[in-house]
């Protein structure tokens, strides 16, 4: 089982056919979709993405390419990005280092902003500062580059990541997009991150995705949790009562794609599955799909050893409901954690 491999498997089709009127340079292409009509018209777009080289970004690039869009990877390191997107297999990907971001964005119809230093580390005061600054600074830069362009050459949509950490943590409250922010460190990071994105000019459609814990094969919290889980024969983490607001990587990527093309997607949207679970249930389901009964608790210290203080995301959760996505009719391929885990574990076993 290779949970850390970066091989990119074929992406399942998006559930929502849509087309939008963007800038004049696009071509209309036809692609097959999993639900509804099989041949729906779709706009071919150029999309600039920060954080494209990361866990979510890699999958997003793969999906957008399969939908025949062109991608501009906005990165800090061309060398690293070229290793992830070698030109032989990614001819529709253009890589841009920071001094080229302006040009790349100007040539784009849309921007997705996913950059940020990983939070699964030890949180020294310096690292905490960088966790925040890496998000705030990249977002400020992207917004500045968009705003200084003439309205007729600007991308028409900015989809910017933020996180459910915005709401703070609670064992009994339920949070939707209208809930107030919390008062811990991560909620402060999210507020500032969102505030910078909200400075984009009003003629650019802004979607702020408050993302939950993303479950996927090739990275994120799950890849780090599984070996631990095996070691401790998979029991609840901490007390097990904490809420775990998760989303399958493919659903998140489909949500981003939908946000890019569907003009009804605007403002704050929670990127979480409709059925968050208590951590004890998440561990029980993981134990079941891995064929390991859940009986020994994984101690907090072990989780902190692999996730650093970033473990607070898992050890002190929040119950977040995707009210807006449901209202918009977004169809989740994995509404239940058992199915999501089953799909991920079977994919890992088959590689
Ligand atoms: N994964 C989750 O469960 C989850 C949950 C909630 C929110 N989010 C948010 O969603 C976004 C993407 O998540 P991810 O899991 O795909 O992240 P990731 O794998 O850690 O990748 C993020 C990307 O950000 C860039 N980056 C890293 N450190 C940076 C720094 N110090 N300054 C500027 N850029 C830096 C890197 O791109 P380059 O090296 O190419 O520049 C990296 O590939 C992040 O902002 C994350 O906070 C993720």
TrEMBL record:
Bilayer-spanning residue ranges: none
Location of the DUF1731 domain: 298-344
Pfam families named among the record's database cross-references: DUF1731, Epimerase
Domain NAD-dependent epimerase/dehydratase: 47-264
Stated name of the protein: Epimerase family protein SDR39U1 homolog, chloroplastic
Lineage of origin: Eukaryota, Viridiplantae, Streptophyta, Embryophyta, Tracheophyta
């Amino acid at each position: 089982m290779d949970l850390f491999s970066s091989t990119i498997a074929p992406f399942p089709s998006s559930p929502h056919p849509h087309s939008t009127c963007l800038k004049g340079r696009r071509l209309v292409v036809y692609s097959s979709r999993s639900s509804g009509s099989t041949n729906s018209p779709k706009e071919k777009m150029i999309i600039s993405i920060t954080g494209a080289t990361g866990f979510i970004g890699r999958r997003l690039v793969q999906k957008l390419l399969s939908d025949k869009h062109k991608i501009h990877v906005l990165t800090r390191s061309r060398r690293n990005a070229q290793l992830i997107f070698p030109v032989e297999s990614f001819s529709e990907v253009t890589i841009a280092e920071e001094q080229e971001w302006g040009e790349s964005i100007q040539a784009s119809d849309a921007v997705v902003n996913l950059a940020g230093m990983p939070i699964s580390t030890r949180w020294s005061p310096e690292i905490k500062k960088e966790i925040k600054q890496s998000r705030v600074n990249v977002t400020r830069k992207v917004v500045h580059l968009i705003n200084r362009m003439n309205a007729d050459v600007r991308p028409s949509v900015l989809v910017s990541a933020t996180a459910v950490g915005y709401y703070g943590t609670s064992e009994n409250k339920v949070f939707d997009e209208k809930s107030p922010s919390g008062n811990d460190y991560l909620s402060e990071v999210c507020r500032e991150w969102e505030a910078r994105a909200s400075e984009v000019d009003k003629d650019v459609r802004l979607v702020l995705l408050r993302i939950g814990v993303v479950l996927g094969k090739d990275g994120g919290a799950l890849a780090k949790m599984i070996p631990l889980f095996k070691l401790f024969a998979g029991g609840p983490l901490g007390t097990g009562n904490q809420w775990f607001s998760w989303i399958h990587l493919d659903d998140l990527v489909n949500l981003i794609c939908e946000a890019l093309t569907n003009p009804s997607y605007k403002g704050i949207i929670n990127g979480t599955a409709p059925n968050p679970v208590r951590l004890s249930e998440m561990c029980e389901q993981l134990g079941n799909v891995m064929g390991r009964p859940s009986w020994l608790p994984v101690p907090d210290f072990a989780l902190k050893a692999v996730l650093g203080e970033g473990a607070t995301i898992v050890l002190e959760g929040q119950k977040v409901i995707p009210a807006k996505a449901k209202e918009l009719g977004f169809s989740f391929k994995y509404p239940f954690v058992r199915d999501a885990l089953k799909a991920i574990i079977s994919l890992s076993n088959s590689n």
